Amino acid sequence: MTVRILRTSDLILRPLELTDASAIPQALADWDVSQWLSAVPSPYTIDDAKYFITQIAPKDTIWAIDDETDLIGVIGVKPNLGYWLRGDLAQQRIHDPSSRGRYRMAFFANRC
User: Fold this and answer.
1) What is the tally of structural domains in the chain?
2) Who contacts 38 (Cβ-Cβ below 8 Å, separation ≥6)?
3) CA-based nearest residue to 8, from 66, 74, 62, 63
4) Which pLDDT score, from 0 to 100, does residue 52 have?
5) What is the pLDDT of residues 8-21, one digit of tens each?
6) Which residues contact residue 14 at a Cβ distance below 8 angstroms, ignoring those fewer than 6 apart?
7) 79 with 21: CB under 8 angstroms?
8) How far apart are CA 18 and CA 70, in angstroms?
9) 49 — alpha (psi -120 to 50), left (phi > 0) or beta?
10) pTM, whole model, 2 decimals?
């Protein structure tokens, strides 16, 4: 199986890894992030993150959003585009509709 990684000028979209497990609960502990998600256990633990990474993400085309230093969010593209970002990134341009469209087009072009 080929692992697809999408690089843009400011982000990397890549498969989630177990090393991401500690960053996910930290981000989802922020109400400004988790309030927009349909179902988030509270508290969201590292074990929840490991289960998500190993059991859910591989089946559902879910990728890590990485800024080349840290996991900053998660994106899924099937059946619909959905993502979350760390709360401290709420004002950055990735939330801009043109940016979302650019990443969506890139995912579909790569048949992820």
Assistant:
1) 1
2) none
3) 66
4) 94
5) 777 888 899 999 99
6) 3, 5, 6, 63, 64, 66
7) no
8) 13
9) alpha
10) 0.79
